[in-house]
Amino acid sequence: MRPMLAATLLGVISVIVLLPVANALTPRSDFSDNVSTYNLFGNTRVCGEHLCDPGQWNIWLNNLLSSQFKKFNELSGIKSPPNTIKSASYDSSLAHTSSGEISGVTTFAMNDGKFTSFVSVTNNGPLGVNHIAISQLNPGVKTLKAWITPQWNSNISLYHITFDTSKSSFTQEQTLNLVIVTDGKPSFSLDTLAAN
Known about the structure:
Elements: H1 2-18, E1 46-47, E2 50-51, H2 56-76, E3 96-97, E4 100-109, E5 115-123, E6 131-136, E7 143-147, E8 153-156, E9 160-164, E10 175-182, E11 188-195
Antiparallel strand pairs: 1-2, 3-11, 4-5, 5-10, 6-9, 6-11, 7-10, 8-9
């Protein structure tokens, strides 16, 4: 019995010593700042502790951003300005338009005299949208920068911003968060949501 036990223990120890160490971590090969937890082009996204259902990613992201803004406002003592929510009017030259609204605007005064606004646009229509047009209504306030994600291209004039994409669509009941930087306190109007 003892020789059998010794042989078994020797075999187990040999296997443990000779097998390579398992490591779940892989070395980093990309040292740029382009690190993300999901792939923008079609891979499954993670919402908290589960895989996102269709349309859930934008809802989850909007809720996350809203809670962060609310907490930031409480900590810094900033009171959100009252926002006027306006429905979209449509450009008749676009063949397919969808209904939508600006569902929220949070504007922060930056130290350099610029204002950063987080504008939430909700698509209430049945069409997938890949063209958004927004106007800045306050005279004398210029739009300096605007973006959504790398998938959306922005075209900025002094008082008008358009966003276009061919890589994705903004579907019904989704809310998309836009970032707009201006040189004064802005006021926004949603002009167009359309499928080109």
